[in-house]
Fold this protein.
Amino acid sequence: MNTYQISGNLVDILHQEIYPATLHIADGRIHNIERNNNAWPHYLLPGFTDAHVHIESSMLIPTEFARLAVVHGTVATVSDPHEIANVMGVKGVEFMLDNGKQVPFKFNFGAPSCVPATIFETAGATVDVADIEQLLQRDDIRYLTEMMNFPGVLNKDPEVLAKIAAAQRAGKPVDGHAPGLRGDAARAYIAAGISTDHECFTLEEGLEKLQYGMHILIREGSAAKNFEALIPLLHDYPEKIMFCSDDKHPDNLVEGHINQLVKRALAHGIDLFKVLRAACINPVLHYKLDNGMLREQDAADFIVVDNLQDFNILATYIDGEKVAENGQTLIPSIPATPVNNFVCSDKAVDDFRMPVNDSNATAVTVKVIEAMNGQLITNALTANLAVTAGLLHSDTSQDILKLAVVNRYREAPVALGFIRGFGLKQGAIASSVAHDSHNIIVVGTDDESLCAAVNAVIAQQGGISFTNKTNTQVLPLPVAGLMSNLDGYTVAQQYSTFDQSAKALGSELASPYMTLSFMALLVIPHLKLSDLGLFDGDGFQFTAVY
């Protein structure tokens, strides 16, 4: 039996007490907690849990995500494998489960509830009620993931209700996803058995859903940033709030994780124990996780920090094993064989042409998606574009750029639209990470650049790319077209280079690639583009570009 002891000032979150103590660790568990009167320079507290995250959005396989996350004191995630499931179905979920078990980290995957997310896009797989029922029988599937189809819940769609019922029979919670849903509709959605929401983007919406009985997850990811709007809720609802990232790109994960939200919340003047309850305790209780909460007989999952203001992570322990120390991961990199579902062939420049039906037209009014920095929600605008030789083009003077989605699962026409907010002055950027079906999405200033960026992704069977006409580069994502199988720190460095290259093309977005990846996410209002056409998220139907 592996036994040792470690001492420090123990932060007992559940009893709101801090005292000097020695932990006696035996076989991965806390055998005994011995109080003492020593003056320790550091503190012991439970590790952090990200209450909702898509591991795939880090562009890292689970083993590599874990290597980076533990450095910041994260010991567990509540992980939605929805992204890879949209590409590969249950086989994709199994890849995540199997890969994650190779490292000392607690991933807590769920059964993806909405694959495909809608009938208005082409996904690579379907996860039906029978699949959900089988997944929920597994001990390593902890919950039903975000029920994005809130219209299906409200309209009592039989398949949607059957998936929720399967989770309830299994005694596992159901996650929600209902941006902007208020009033009686929100009440009905929650009454159907939905327990959380991570999509609130105003304080009023979050407060209303809390009062209806929901748990609210305060999200701060690479694209969606709702922390400042929602953090006041933690003052009055400390038992109903959790922290999450949802989607975290690799360069941001190198910089920090839930530890950053802890420090920011404390800077807002929120009580220490309320903050730590959201970061360490509430996810464990709500999802019935196996994480230790620094009690006798708990799993020895804890962190050592220098003080309770700066929260510098000195060491991270999971099941008694030290997995990070002084900013360095102690988890080794493990090779992984890619799995994928990528069928389409190279595109031609003509595939990105947008002809105008009226041969006499000199200008037309087009519908335009407006991307917003730090938000998944978009605005629906209109703009006047000149017609040149019977074709519509990007107009950089108005920041109206052509947006395209290319079906990667079969040969099909390219879907075209226009977008504002990316600010590119030249070239194009493309990605096979395009929520939720993960077709190829591209934005650019001219048709030749759009085509070059897309074909660079196709050549690698997945990745992110950029072109400035003279130079086209791609960061390969061979695992389902979503993740790299390389060392996480290497991927983070490569991604940072691509991010800077996108900004060098003119974009002022904080995270151009992450923002681009959500422009095909139909379940978030107001206007998006799928591989089947321009989509009105309010009317939940297709709409014409002009």
Q: What stands out?
A: The chain has 16 helices and 29 strands. Residues 349-542 form one domain. The first helix runs from residue 62 to 69.
